[in-house]
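User: I'm putting together a teaching handout on how multi-component assemblies are represented. Below are the sequence lines for each component of a complex, exactly as they appear in our records. Could you produce the 3D structure of the whole assembly as structure tokens, so the students can see both representations side by side? Please keep the chain order the same as the input.
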Amino acid sequence: MYAFEIERPATIADAVAALQGDDAQALGGGQTLIPTLKARLAMPAKLVSLSGIGEMQGVCHSDDGALCIGGATTHATVATEAAAHYPALAALAAHIGDPAVRNRGTIGGSLANNDPSACYPAAALGSGAVIITNTRSIPADDYFQGMFTTALEDGEVITEVRLPVPETANYQKFVQPASRFALVGVFVAKFPDGVRVAVTGASENGVFRWTEAEAALSADFSAGALAGLGVSPDGMIADLHGSSAYRAHLVAVMTKRAVNAC
Amino acid sequence: MPKDTGIGASTKRREDVRFLTGRGKYTDDIQTYGECAAVFARSTVANGVIKSIDTSAAAAMPGVLAVFTGEDFADVGGNPAGWLINSRNGEPMKEPKRPVLAHGKVRHVGDAYAAVIAETVQQARDAVEAITVDIEELPALINMKDALAADHYVHDEIGTNQCFDWGWIEDNRAATDEAIRNAHHVTTLELVNNRLVPNAMEPRCSIGHYNPGTDEYMLHTTSQNPHLTRLLISAFVMGIPENKLTVIAPDVGGGFGSKIYHYGEEALVLAAAKKLGRSVKWTAERTESFLTDAHGRDHVTKIELALDADGKFLAFRTETLANVGAYLSNFSTATPTFLHGTLMAGNYTVPLVYVNVKAVFTNTAPVDAYRGAGRPEATYSIERVIDKAARELGMDPIALRRKNFVKPDQYPFTSAAGLEYDSGNYDALMDQMEKIADVAGFAERRKASEAKGLLRGFGVNAYIEACGIAPSNLVGVLGSRVGLYDAATVRVNATGNLSVMVGAHSHGQGHETVFPQVVAEMLGIDPQSIDIVHGDTSKIPFGMGTYGSRSLAVCGSAVVRATEKIIAKAKKIAAHMLEAADTDIELKDGVFSVAGTDKSVSFGEVALKAYIPHNFPLEDLEPGLEETAFYDPANFTYPSGAYCCEVEVDPETGKVRVDRMTAVDDFGNVINPMVVTGQVHGGLGQGIGQALVESTTYDENGQLLSASYMDYTMPRADDLPFYTVDHSKGNPCTHNPLGVKGCGEAGAIGSPPTVVNAVIDALQSGGMNVTHIDMPMTPHRVWSAMQG
Ligand SMILES: Cc1cc2nc3c(=O)[nH]c(=O)nc-3n(C[C@H](O)[C@H](O)[C@H](O)COP(=O)(O)OP(=O)(O)OC[C@H]3O[C@@H](n4cnc5c(N)ncnc54)[C@H](O)[C@@H]3O)c2cc1C
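Assistant: Of course. Below is the structure of the complete assembly, with chains in the same order as your input.
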């Protein structure tokens, strides 16, 4: 680790101001950023901790029934507080990493990082969430722009994530054996106006919607409706843990299992 | 009724009190006044010529005290291999120098070419980044076959990448070839024994100290083997007189083999301590552990098994490429040869064995002994090919093994690979396994799995290994440059309690509990009054360390011998006190009495008298009560076992789950059944890890792709089943005083083939013609195999 300054603002406004300086970086739960710093792969001059900002904490409801999660809310909090309203989301949060990771890691940090194997991006895209920042609201469909790439500008802070609650939903995560991130994760959500299917872990372009499956499931919400459907291995990640063909295969298997579990 | 003290009691491990309450004292916990920090500059390329190193900027950085490069150690010795192997043509193996710091060339990613000593770790790290090095990268030699065919070399000065080409037993070669040519059936299998990173929980750490007032050095280090480290530093690397160097291995957080060896970092901190007159500490980061701890296994083998029409084994023949990495680590040449080839007859009466091993230098981390060391590789090859043969011949895998087992009336049995097995009963182990694993109920369980859409497989394995390493006479003939005895001193203090100094180092094995059980049993006293001292060369007569499941069989035997001497001396003292002849003195329950009388003195009274020798007949009886013994075993010990497991395979994803695992072992006599069970559990976890998840992967440029826990999978609790472990069917070792055989590695030896055999069985039950999958059988590998 290189030396850095740290600020602990109590409001979003103060955090945004603190982030204006050169080489300042937001610190969520630090579950990605701190290991990066320890490996000396980043050298921000200043970290701005978001964990003391009360208005970015917790889970509540908006008037239109969406679930609103503060950008600095930990996975553990989502796992408990969302359980009654959005069980599939709570279950997803409950299976991120280990207790230490869940007690510190945050939804804002996960979405800002947009790891191609992370779980929350699948939930956000699969739910048709809106990512709310200190300056604007970004629909999930516009937010995710490829591996580790998002619509966020420098210094922009995710203050809240607003997720429409589907009639039913399920997330199936086939774990990468070492990291236990998703080798392939599929989030299926059935809304009155159609089904959304979001896939993480698989594509070189990060989380994506499997529109063919969405159309089939919107017409007939059953695993049988997926028969014969598959994604192409082209553009799928190939690494130590699985070839692109294997990942493409798992996308179909996990989608079917998610539907069966709904 | 189980005993509650002494030999055979499941006494709780006394060392766990400090380990589990955070009171252990590991090397990194030791802090010395004025201590400074060492950080190493390590190669980021696998193979390259060091054109220049400029350390001037680093030397000028804040807090920097010294900078070392390979040049500084050009005149000191290399870290040697402990075992000389001769090739089939009689030529000795190639032994390129292994320097303290790379000099002229870097040979693997992580190879250290410089070190900075600074006031703090941060300052040293900053300064390492300021070193300018110009390395001309050369093509990396990673794959063993490529390395053997290449016309450039890991070590230019030896002009080959082959360390040796070893044959065992060379005189059997022609007969074995002949038997295979003429056999009714030959089963052939090519397999990979995957390279493993040891992953001790505690990373390596060393602190060098130097006292200019006495010219004495001290090294605190994470070692399984402090005396060997001292010997190597003294005799080979630095020339520090042995009497001026103390090596202390305090609590050590796991080793699994990787901490047997001497590493360059240990020499560096000593040299730096001398130069600065201050204590110098280096603690590995986890990435350094991945890159530089000696790895394990890494064999590529072709094995053939010849059988007659009845299924009798006629011959085993193997050709193995064994990766030794970029440098020869201390045991790296013994592991693929005498710890592997000599076991290639397994538990079987097969008349012919021929093993060929070519050891290959590559631009990868050194490879050396890792839990099991050669015997897992032997067992894996044998037990996989037997399973394949059973399938090809349509025979039951258990029946085929039983048909070829050495039978109880054949001991001592000289195997076709040249070892003399002293005792065993493989059929009895198999009987017990079949019973407690409920093998008969498998068909029902398979049906239940199939109803869930899962394929269930059954796998079995019989193993034998050689422990209690090792008879010095024998290993000397075979090329060992050291003796493999061990030593113990039993010191009875005046107040009647005991300190027992042992050469074996305990880093999780439970010696501090088990050795006192032995001494307490012999003396008839409370084990709590006995403490074990280990890991400090200034306190212990000598020792050859802990590995090869040797601690109890070899060092424990030395403890027995020393305790026998104590008893003999104590009887003399008691005889003097009781005015009787020492031949008339009996020891029972801690009391010395004159046979046939009611005259007696307690052990405590004798101890006190030994140190207050008023009116001793000094010409016959020395004061004091302290005895030392060295014990050199007459033979290896031969633990054996019958293992089975059941797996469920998800045909859609290839994911394997081990559902049941049964291990029946013959460890001879068992001193503490609970400790033995724990050792087996640990070994099984590592074996299942190797079989299912652990993979050390270098890319073609020699970058270690699995250099962190994000990519290197360690088995976790939910990867492992509850185990059924049994060691009630032991046949005592016939040649050591305790009748013990060794249990530390068995689980890691017996389980990998068991799991692979079960997965193959599962896939075959699903109609898939899959005959082999290389370890680790990750979901991706299994799924790919299912695709044909
Ligand atoms: C052992 C382990 C296992 C894990 N397993 C999983 C898993 O199974 N699935 C999974 O999805 N994830 C997993 N993670 C990642 C974990 O969920 C992280 O917590 C998450 O990716 C990052 O969140 P954080 O709050 O820790 O962010 P930090 O590490 O603090 O920050 C990450 C990045 O986001 C930025 N940032 C943080 N908060 C905000 C914000 N509110 N607005 C804008 N930018 C912000 C930071 O500047 C930084 O660039 C694992 C992590 C570990 C260490």
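A couple of points students might notice: The first helix of chain B runs from residue 16 to 20. The first strand of chain B starts at residue 36 and ends at 42.
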